[in-house]
Amino acid sequence: MADHGTNHGTHHRTHGQINRLSGGQIDRNKPLSFTFDGKTFQGYHGDTLASALLANGVRLMGRSFKYHRPRGPLTAGSEEPNAIVALRSGAYQEPNTRATTAELFDGLEATSQNRWPSLAFDAMAINDRFSNFLTAGFYYKTFMWPAAFWEKIYEPIIRKAAGLGALTGSADPDVYDKGFRHCDLLVVGAGPSGLMAARTAAEAGFEVIIADEDFRFGGRLNSEHEFIGDQAGADWAASQVAHLGTFSNVRVMSRTTVIGTFDHGIYGAVERVTDHLRTSAEGQPRQILWRIYAKHTVLCAGATERPIAFNNNDRPGVMLAGAMRSYANRWGVSAARDAVIFTSNDDGHRTAADLHRQGVAIAAVVDTRADAPSAHEYAVIAGTTVTDTRGRLGLNAVQVTDATGHSRWLKAGSLGVSGGWNPNVHLTSHQGARPVWNDALNAFVPSPSLPPHMSVAGAAAGMLSTHGALHSGVDAACKALEIDPRTLPALPKADDRPVTQSAFWCVQGSERAWLDQQNDVTVKDVKLSHQEGFRAVEHLKRYTTLGMATDQGKTSNMGGLAVMAELTGQPIADVGTTMFRPPYTPTAIGVLAGRSRGKDFHPVRLTPSHYWAKERGAVFVEVGNWLRAQWFPIEGETHWRQSVDREVLATRSSVGVCDCTTLGKIDVQGTDAAVFLNKVYCNGFAKLAVGRTRYGLMLREDGIAMDDGTAARLAEDHFVVTTTTANAGKVYQHMEFVRQCLCPDLDVQLISTTESWAQYAIAGPNARALLQKVVDAEFDISNDAFPFMACGAITVCGGLRARLFRISFSGELAFELAVPARYGDAMMRRLMDEGEEFNVTPYGTEALGVMRIEKGHAAGNELNGTTTAQNLGLGRMVSKAKDSIGSKLSERVGLNTEDGLRLVGLRPLNPKDKITAGGHVMSAEGPVNAAHDQGYVTSAAYSPTLGNMIGLAFIKSGSERIGDRMRLVSPLTKTSVEVEVVSPHFVDPEGERQRA
Amino acid sequence: MHDLTPITAFGLAEPTVFVTQSCQLAERPRIALASVAARLGVDEACRAVITDLLRADAPDPAAWLASDIYSAFWMGPDQWMFSADFPDVEDIVARLKTSFGETASITEQTDGWVSFDLTGEVEAVLELVCSVDMRTRSAGYASRVSIHHTGCFLLIEASDRVRVYAPRASAGSVFHGISQAMTSAAAR
């Protein structure tokens, strides 16, 4: 079991839950102990961290981003801007989590952040005193000069002063998974509309996924004192969840946030598997990122209450009225024992009634409307606004001002604010659609141009009554899945009171009135933005940072737009909205990575001799996904060059063996196989005899060299093509394209056999002698019977089927022996055993590279996507007698200039000098600059055969400059070496060895 | 008879097995494989041979089926992968060439792939490694899938049994990816 950095804690002084009310959907039989900033508190199972802290009389939970003002929770959900804390400890600590959604568990350890030295006394709160200087655009205007100070001085100071939590600096010890799920209907949100949509689809037999970010389904029903039929709303929701649980075609995903809408009906969803647990089982993922493939989706994401801006509206204790109702009804908690409600609509009155019912004293309901409904139990002050608040670390008084300008102070520890509700349209906008303004609701609602196969129901669609939510959920499911609604039972009765919302966003005369509480953006900042010309909504956002915090402005955007609309004299609809983008809520980077981290970042491919090579102590190198032996150090060797030099010399003097399985192998069969190869290679293959192999060069359509390799003709209708390791996939894809699209009339079949065969290069003057010890006697591999470029099917070691190719990359007498991959390990061990008398030496990719440079063979460095057959010195291979891919375009004038690049060899005049790959070649005299560039070095190596470094280079008119002295320069490293241009074939230029 | 000893893709003599409370992942090293691709213009004749061998029509896209000797799945247009659980896996190409004659190109694939049988509560595992929907797919379904970034074939044999063919060189990575998912699924 992994313990996630929680407090095992000895019990310290337990604070009483002084603000715990009766009722709620918490389990009072399951008390839980937790700590906040080191103090121990108690809550109950079913609490969030925020509800438990409020129950314990803790309203102060954080400090604001810029001014370090004291903050408490504004909301009771994922839209929370203020109550941002760090959870757990050690490497498991996670900063910037919302206390309002953190599910309480026994031993939870939470700490406040962005404060020093303590939450109650934060030295950086001095920023608040200088707020006149720290307005929007402050950084841009102030830290202009001197420019050099920005990176080293200003930015570090600003980062330290402003911000949220800090990372631990340790690697995340949790594991994360990614997965795939499919459904006919995805229901996003499990409030009344979501539950009905899911139930409708489930009962019709469709595959349904219903996901909700909360750990308890029901949405607002859990927060309201209302009935559906004869059941309390929360009980009705629980019964629906239980009902859905009886269907095998329904997957109920709680603690799962659908974070994004993507192409083709794919949705991203993060499931929090262990965040609510103290410990997790070994291997259990903390979170899973699901990719949900949905044929249809119903978005039932509900609505977010909007605040009203007034001076000092950000003190701990000032909350959204709906959130206060949630705390009271769902968690049995109040922020204080007395409250004022400030509302512009009827919904605020529901909060007052529910709090009053729970025993919270309502000092007054302050309603902006002159015709506000009255109440018997408490005072309702109509046509009035809240204009200011008091309280150093938490609210203790509210200033109320009537229409005549008369003000008075009301004593209260909590203030519920309700400016109406905004539909949660975010997921409808992830593919570009902008929400549209609805005059009746005074809110943005989803665009008619929804993502394909998405519909919206409930409050997210602007249906703000429970009755409307239930009906729209059913309707959406029926329409999406073509279910006949007449076959469905009648819906239970639910609250159907008409919902009206007025447009009241900001109390007149407010300045230090917070719009975006997370990023500390006030009404004054928006006014400044307007004054300085940043009036377009996207400019407003970036200039003030409104809506750019981790809450994406869920509670702030509308207020900002409204203030700007008023300043510009436009309707809000014309001001528009900024674009919503995934993820809907903050998402851990770890879950985006899933298991693809560290050594699991990509898969590896092992060669057939891998385990043998590992035993030999080989040093491996990644080549694509392959792990190849780079060299095989032996006792006494302390530097890689010692090993590589030894391997090269041993191979050239006796025999070496190298695993070349990684080269691509493509099986080409069919009566037109030769015709086909004649098409894809620029040189001729039609007349290649059975039992022979030929070097081939493939060109791209544009005439540039693509890849090289060999094609061995095993039968009239059967070839094996080899490719370079790096291009194996690309060449196979290219050949399939040619086969299927360009030559569909040819009888040719392709398939990769790269991994089927273990293939070993056996090179050196004793290669034949070694092979003769393993090749079965009936196969004659003498030079006469099996000459250079021969190939054939043979058997080895007493009957194992094998293929033998007499080809050479090293320039030595060489063969490539292929056996079924499962015998690769045994074959390599046998070659080593049988080769002892020849001092057989395994060699790795480094020695392979050295020998191919010594021989002047092109490889990936030379086939670099810019070079032609002419450049490579292979111009004559491009046959004029046939049409092949790329041959015509290789004749372009620009690719065939007289001074074109040609592959040459370079050797330093001073044998001790270094040849540097990537260096450029200049004339022996004259300026060193790009205008006088003569070419560049592609490959370089120390040649143990020659005793000095050598290089391959492309040089203008290179083949005519053999013997010239030039300069190899690297201005970056300030090196300049005198070199001689030589033939690229440093070793055995006549090819006598490989034909021996 | 040659005297070389084969090893599994994991470098071992015996097949590798991984077990959790709810699933088992077992390597099956003795499955013979060969690809069969119809020659141009004789695809009907090729299909007739397949029908004869499998006693059913050639598998359609996204399908596999089996007879008493062979099973086969669709790999591409006019292309199938045949498998057989022979005592000697070396026989498969020769046998198929005899059956198909000039109607198809046969290519040895036994050592190109490693076969894994995943049994038990496979849905909870597969949903973490690939995009196959086990709730709507049933026995007889075959698909190219990507597991741990590696192209594999997946065949559903029953709701609690699937076979995965993974490239031999990547066997360790694919096995690792599936076994991690098994651990994760068992712990959830």
From TrEMBL, chain A:
Alphabetical UniProt keywords: Methyltransferase, Oxidoreductase, Transferase
Domain GCVT N-terminal: 610-882
Name of the gene this protein is made from: gcvT_1
GO biological process: methylation; tetrahydrofolate metabolic process
Annotated region described as Disordered, given as residue ranges: 1-25
Annotated family: Belongs to the GcvT family.
InterPro entries: 2Fe-2S-bd_N, FAD/NAD-bd_sf, GcvT/YgfZ/DmdA, GcvT/YgfZ_C, GcvT_C, GCVT_N, Sarcosine_oxidase_asu, SoxA_A3
NCBIfam families: soxA
Enzyme Commission no: 2.1.2.10
Domain of life: Bacteria
Protein name in the entry: Aminomethyltransferase
Alphabetized GO MF terms: aminomethyltransferase activity; methyltransferase activity; sarcosine oxidase activity
Enzyme class: transferase
Aminomethyltransferase C-terminal domain location: 902-988
Domain annotation SoxA A3: ranges: 511-595
Entry-linked Pfam families: Fer2_4, GCV_T, GCV_T_C, NAD_binding_8, SO_alpha_A3
Organism field: Nereida ignava
Automatic annotation (TrEMBL), chain B:
Name listed for the protein in its UniProt record: Sarcosine oxidase, gamma subunit family
Domain of life: Bacteria
Organism (species): Nereida ignava
